[in-house]
């Protein structure tokens, strides 16, 4: 590939519903700017973003934090969300600013990563992109018109992500995606009484102790009690530290299983909120009435993840 053909910037434009004979799904339109100044539009499914992330983590283990989680600089994609068929458009729209930030951060990395064949081929236009662009070019024209009137994309303006630095990425992404099927730890929150042994790990300033996390490891079951404040407003770093301290191991990943049976990594407060919201939406009940199902896994093995990439 010549220098002029390198992708140097990309912007998520919109999401579009694709209807085939036996399936329906959403794709994201991405405006790609090349080094030559030329632009083109490509269309990618959410699973392709996930697939790209997993392939990058295999190619660049140091930058993925596999050796030392503190060294992670690779950005992460948002967690998978399932709200039911009637809300798939809403789910796709919620991902727009997060995916936009993801592709921009990828291209801002050192050229060893940003110019590698994995990223450049992901952003390269193919025949399917041409076909989809014929179908969606009219809606994109309307999209640009609205953006010019408002000064920015109305969809991207709905939810402005916080500025992200390499340091903040390391902080919220310490446990990179990984799993070891022989040491799967299962955590379930249920109603329980207070356990005084937990006081060293979390400040129990509330008298209303309503939940306990049970984790299953090597055939043994242990409990971690949490207070109402932690349960209703959980923080990823607190949850990660609490579980890691109890099992005596920090080389882990927190995950949940979505309603399609896929194992999804939790790497930030936002993705923890998504998990809780998905539980509530999927069951048609209030989130605090649904037991958490959190799976803690070891780093470095991708065997339990769906890594398919649609080319």
From TrEMBL:
Any single GO BP term: superoxide anion generation
Domain of life: Eukaryota
Disordered, as annotated region: 150-172
Cited SMART domains: PX (SM00312)
One GO cellular component term: cytoplasm
One GO MF term attached to the UniProt entry: phosphatidylinositol binding
Keyword Repeat: yes
UniProt cross-references to InterPro entries, sorted A to Z: NADPH_Oxidase/PX-Domain (IPR051228), PB1_dom (IPR000270), PX_dom (IPR001683), PX_dom_sf (IPR036871), PX_p40phox (IPR034912)
Pfam families linked: PB1 (PF00564), PX (PF00787)
Keyword set, alphabetical order: Repeat
Residues in PX domain copies: 6-130
PANTHER family: SH3 AND PX DOMAIN-CONTAINING PROTEIN 2A, SH3 MULTIPLE DOMAIN
Name this protein carries in UniProt: PX domain-containing protein
Organism of this sequence: Trichoplax adhaerens
């Amino acid at each position: 590939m010549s220098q002029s053909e390198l992708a140097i910037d990309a912007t998520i434009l919109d999401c579009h519903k694709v209807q085939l004979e036996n399936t329906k799904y959403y794709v994201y339109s991405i405006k790609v700017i090349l080094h030559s100044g030329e632009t083109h539009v490509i269309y990618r499914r959410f699973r392709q973003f996930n697939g790209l992330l997993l392939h990058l983590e295999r190619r660049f283990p140091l930058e993925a934090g596999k050796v030392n989680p503190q060294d992670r600089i690779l950005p992460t994609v948002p967690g998978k969300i399932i709200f039911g068929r009637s809300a798939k458009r809403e789910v796709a729209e919620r991902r727009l600013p997060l995916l936009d930030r993801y592709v921009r951060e990828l291209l801002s990395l050192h050229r060893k990563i940003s110019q590698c064949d994995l990223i450049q081929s992901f952003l390269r236009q193919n025949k399917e992109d041409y076909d989809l662009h014929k179908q969606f070019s009219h809606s994109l024209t309307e999209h640009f018109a609205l953006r010019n009137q408002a000064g920015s994309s109305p969809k991207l303006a709905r939810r402005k992500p916080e500025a992200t630095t390499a340091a903040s990425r390391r902080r919220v992404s310490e446990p990179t995606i990984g799993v070891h099927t022989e040491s799967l730890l299962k955590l379930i929150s249920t109603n329980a009484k207070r356990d005084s042994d937990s006081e060293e790990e979390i400040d129990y300033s509330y008298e209303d102790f309503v939940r306990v996390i049970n984790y299953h490891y090597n055939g043994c079951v242990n409990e971690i009690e949490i207070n109402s404040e932690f349960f209703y407003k959980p923080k990823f770093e607190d949850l990660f530290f609490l579980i890691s301290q109890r099992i005596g191991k920090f080389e882990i990943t927190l995950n949940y299983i979505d309603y399609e049976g896929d194992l999804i990594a939790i790497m930030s407060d936002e993705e923890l909120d998504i998990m809780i919201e998905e539980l509530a939406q999927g069951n048609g009940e209030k989130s605090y009435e649904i037991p958490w199902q959190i799976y803690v896994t070891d780093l470095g093995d991708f065997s339990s993840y769906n890594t398919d990439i649609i080319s």
